[in-house]
Amino acid sequence: MVVNMRGGLVTWGASSVQFGFFMQTGAEVAWAQSNSFLSDPAAMKILLSGITTVTAAATVLGLVAWLIHAHLYHLTGLGLQAIRELFMGGYRARYTLLSVPNKSWLASVDLRTVRRTAIAVSIFVSLLFLELTRPAIPYDHISGALPLTLMDAFTKKAVTVEGCRNPNTNFPLWTAGKTSSERWARPAWLPQNPPSGFSRWDISPEERAEKDNPSWYLCSSGKEPGFYDPKKDPLKISNLGGEIYEPLQKAFKEHSVEIDNVVLLTLESGRKELFPAQQGTPMFDALLESHKKEKRDEAIDHLAKLTPVAQMLTGEYATDSKGDKVDLSHATWQDTAEEGMGGLNVRGALTGSSLTFKSILGSHCGVNPLPVDMLEETALEIYQPCLPQLFELFNEVKSPAPPAMPEAIEARSDDSEAVKYPWKSVFMQSITEDYDRQDVLNKNMGFENKVVKKTLTRARQGSKYAPKGQEINYFGYAETELKPYVQDLFEEAANNKTRIFLSHVTSTTHHPWNTPDDFKMEFYMGNEGAVNHNLMNNYLNTQRFVDNWLGDIMNMLDETGIANTTLVVVVGDHGQAFGEDNKDMTGTYENGHISNFRVPLVFRHPHMPRIDINANATSLSIIPTILDLLVQSESLDAHDAEIASALLPEYQGQSLIRPFVPAIGDLSPKTHSNNARSPRPTHKHQDAQTQRVWNFGLINAGGSMISVTSADTPYRLILPIRESFEYVFTHLDEDPGELHPMKTWKLSEIVDEVTKKFGEDAASWAEDAEQVGKWYVNEQRRIWGYREK
Fold first, then answer.
1. pTM over 0.90
2. What structural domains does the chain harbor?
């Protein structure tokens, strides 16, 4: 009785969570990932934030169960009794192969027993028939029943995808043309005891030779993990041979660009459509639809003023309902850069993951994340040096007489001594770093100095460092509580002969989208449509709050006098899907919608010319661009410049101070067929000398689906890593908001549908995208040295 009661309570609780989670997000609970949340106190707060919907589901389920349980119990008992009588009752005694029941026996048969038996047999035969005949995908997934599926919480399942690219097809190998010992010679710039992050250079030629096998780099079947080698990366396309943008060349020659400090701002849930908010995006149109037609001009004028600082940082100035440029005098910061100056603004950037910390690996370390759930990367070595480790290396190699340099690299020609100053790397966020092992990640990236929630709560009450307000969400405080710490760091850079690298992650724009009590909330949404717009309105207010905070940071740079020598990089970790984007699913969890992937990417410097870059790049380009800027602006001494130049081609991303190369070779369309009746011929891969930039984005929590795009096409494929998810194809030029995606359980069905609607080339691309995506999953596991537990 006790066992039955416990089982019933577990099933009731799990069912309530399942229904409540679906009501909140439109997604299903992945019980295999729940153990990561249950063991993490910070993560538990996320789960408890949805307690309202879970409680509502539990109440409804409990009420319905109480009303019908007696009737269901009675029916179930009758069914089981009928089955018992079928196999063990009077039929077996009275009916054999040698005798046939007589009429007197038939008259004694209870018709109710016959009916119950027939129903039981029918159900049994039907279930057996379905199990034997229906496809495993998706029916095995959707027919999983509680409490059996709860067992997934105690098991760790392997990835089901397999793939290994043939080096002789259209994805060519890169070769160095040197012997193994030459290729893996220890570089002269590497100090005897380098900081962490440089192990792939700090290894003997003999150890490297063991891994010098082409198949090692293409397949994931090796017995030991391999290292990343850009010369053997079949997806790498470099643009370092290209000319620097002409306006930048001029600025570099005039020595007007000095970079003594780097500030990297990561915007939590930072959607590109809101950086800045302006007309002409799917999101802006969706926001207007919440207003009555006669009030939409007023709504345009209001929304266009939402993020004024973002307008000035990007150079994308919004217009009002009359087509006039919006007045930005209300902004918390006023741009002092001359007309036409401000830096690089990238349009088309995509995140590498819709899970924050996996995304940070791309922006801070120039690596693709590991395609498994949650932050398993913390147990492994990051396969490229991260920014703090690069700056620490610059510190360690300082010497009175640096080695001779190539003629192309010289120290800054002016009288500045800043190129010789040591770097100090600091990480700041106003929330906890305990969630999903972020503290371990920060350490692995090389951050020795940090300011986090623990720092704020330990500050002496009454001091300028003590928080002025209460915690605003389940993670911690608002960003503004960091102001005295940021101010001190900037003053240190200005006065103490220190070069700073500041990494700051915002958080207010994370669910539940709360702001401090003294922040005035505004109403940006109307009441039209079936979606409740309260969540979106809260999100928009947090966007305005963070925009104000960015203005505060820019003001502090101005006030301390280091604005003209500081490179500010702004990037979103991922987007955030709402009901206004997609009525079926919201949030980032297991949601591949494009609104979760478009992010801002800006390289701000007041003495750099304003350049708009249209490129489907990712945060992999951040480190190459920073290193390239430091070298070309002569903001490093000769020895550091040598190191930076040597490391530049080692990273997977392209430098964005040169024209972005989306593909090499002839990738122009060969045929276009929209004739639904024309049979599609067997796909033939493109020529071996053609290559395109493939972008991959892991979908939160990381191990279920990946987004695959290429920089040269508008196509997008959601590739399932696990069998319980669908293939999704979209054409972003024709459907930028992904309102009408193609969804099927088989790639062949996607290919057929794409052929009919978009032609042969789009269908061929989808096939290539699946192949490359499968290879990517296994290759990342190999590079990271990951093995399923």
1. no
2. 2-154 (no CATH), 246-272+348-578+613-657 (3.40.720.10), 664-784 (no CATH)
